[in-house]
Each structure stands twice: as C-alpha cells, then as structure tokens.
Amino acid sequence: SNIGINFVAFDWAGEINRLVNDGLERWSPLKDGGINPFTDKGLRSSPELLLDVLSSAMNLTQPQSYIVMRVFNDGIPRSFGELQEAIEAYPEEARWDREVKRGLLRKVAIVASAKFSSIFNGSVDLEELEGSPRIVLLDEIESYTVRRAYSLIMLAAMFSRRNRTKPVVAAIDEAHNLFSDDNDLLGHIMAESRKYGLYIALATQSPSAVPNDVLLNANTKIVHALRSLRDKEVVVQSMNLSHDMINLLDKLQPGEAIVQSPTIINPILVKVQLRAPLRDGVSNGRVGEPVNVNASPPL
Fold first, then answer.
1. CA distance 208 to 45
2. Distances, alpha carbon 127 to alpha carbons 135, 254, 283, in Å
3. pLDDT tens digits, residue range 215-250?
C-alpha cells in the first residue's frame, strides 16, 4: 500500500487484523455482506464458471456438480435458497440419484440457512472493495464451510471483473483451506488473473496441501522455516533447491527466508531486520529492505 498498490487481504484466522493497526479499512462479512454468485453480472454471464465456483465453494463431488448443472439447464436460480428448492424438485431416477441428491442438499442447506444467507446478499461493490487497501474479516464466519464458500465466491467475482483500471492484489492467508481435490478453482484463477490486473499472493503453513501446479506456477516464492518432511519435499521440488539450501529449511530463524523470483533464478537466502523483539512469536514490523545474506558482509 505504501507504493500505491491496493490489496484485499483475506484474513482466514484473524491474525492480519490483530497485527495491522495502521488504519487500514476492514470489511465485515456479517455487517457489510458479500457477493451473491447467482446475480453477480460477471459470474451469471458465465454458467460454466459459476458451476465451477459453486462446486469448489461447497466442495461438491462430480455427481453432485452434475445435478447442479442439470438444474442450471432449466434456468439459473437467483439465490442459494432457490438452488435448494430446485434441487429438492430434481427428479430421482434411481437410488443413486437419491443418495447424491441428499448429500448435495446437506451442503447447500448450510449456505442457504437464515444464519448465513445475509453474507451472500450481493451488497458488495467490487470497485469499492478494490478501491483501497482493506482486510476481509473471514474469522467472523463461524462455519468453516461457509467461510470457504464466501472466500472463493468473492475471489471468483474479482476474477470475473475485467474492466479494472488499476491492479489489485488478493492476499490470502491460510490458503490451503481454499483448495480441494475435485475442483482447483483457485489454481485456475491464478493461472489467468494477471492479464486482468488481479494478482494473487498465497500464504500457508502447509505447502504440501497446495496443488503442485500452483506451487510451480507461482512467480515468487518466499519460504520460511519448515519442519514437516512432506512440506520440505514439496518445496524442494518446486524450487530446485541446492543441497545447502535444503539443509537450511528447518534451521531458518525469524526474519530469514529463501527467496526465488523471475529476477532471482537461483534461490537466495535473505534476512529482514526485525523492528522490535518477537511478541508471541511475531515481530511487529521491520526496518530497511530485505538483505541478501549470501552477499558480503551479511546483515
């Protein structure tokens, strides 16, 4: 934000909100609402994308997605409540249909419930949302399922917006929560969003839970200390680390990271000077610029 780049930070667990206190705007799903995927112009005009969004947002199986597709053939609903009614009216031609339909209704009923319907009310103006740096307070949403659905629907609506004049960064904390085995919507968005001025920044403590193609396609990687053997293996494969770098992965100290980017082909070790002592394992900032500790003399 200091150099004029706006961002929307999707704060999954409330950590960003607690750490950043410099007056950035907050977006409350419970008070400010969200996107209605069925009435959003960008999503409704592309039924295929809308189906992908709903499938990923509610973590639908392929058979469940097929039923939603069949429902769309008779007309796209205008709310999760209408979708629930249309699924209930869907004819059951076999016992298999009944089981799939019941499983689908259980998932739709959560986001269609009166408790959460207000956060999918279509009250978000995307131009306003992207107009200044802000934090989306996802932790206000108690249900993990609904929190995931809200995040992916907001991101998909931002992705479908083609006419922005100023780039924006969508920064997603605890990003592993937004991926699923059956539908990699976020990976699809990342692959195409840059040409529309939407840049994605992912943060996760579990890189092994992120699809490999997403890790490979990420232009810039910043890796702090990793303890899990599986996480280390995934990072090593995606960054082609040297033997010395591999040995450093579980020994990095706070403020230290291995960095790779389009302008840094061979990963380097950097260290950022902390501005204040660690508090509960987290520093409240930094001074100066990242320093390459491979250079002489190191910081």
1. 35
2. 15, 37, 33
3. 887 889 999 999 999 999 999 988 888 888 999 999
Q: Are 64 and 103 in contact (CB under 8 A)?
A: yes
- Which residue is listed with tokens 């609402």? 33
Which residue in 17, 19, 24, 18 sits closest to 2, CA to CA? Answer: 24
* Nearest-angstrom CA–CA distance, 13 and 218: 23
In Å, what is the CA distance from 287 to each residue of 67, 90, 275, 290? 54, 60, 6, 9
More confident residue, 1 or 106: 106
pLDDT of residue 299: 33
- Chain position carrying tokens 């009923």: 109
For residue 187, give the nearest of 214, 159, 153 by alpha carbon. 214
pLDDT in tens, 255-294: 899 999 999 888 999 998 876 655 555 555 544 455 554 5
Angle 150-13-134 from CA coordinates, rounded to 5°: 65
**CA distances in angstroms from 250 to 52, 215, 228, 254, 290, listed in the order given:** 37, 19, 9, 12, 20
Amino acid found at 146: V
CA gap 217, 209 in Å, rounded: 15
* Separation CA 207–CA 45 (nearest Å): 34
39-89 confidence digits (pLDDT tens): 999 999 999 999 999 999 999 999 999 999 999 999 999 999 999 999 999
Whole-structure pTM value: 0.86
Is-contact 141 119, C-beta < 8 A? yes
Contact 172, 201 (CB under 8 A): yes
Q: pLDDT, tens digit, for every residue of 98-124? A: 899 999 999 999 999 999 988 998 888
Dihedral class, residue 152 (left if φ above 0, else alpha if ψ from -120 to 50, else beta)? alpha
d(CA 183, CA 59): 8
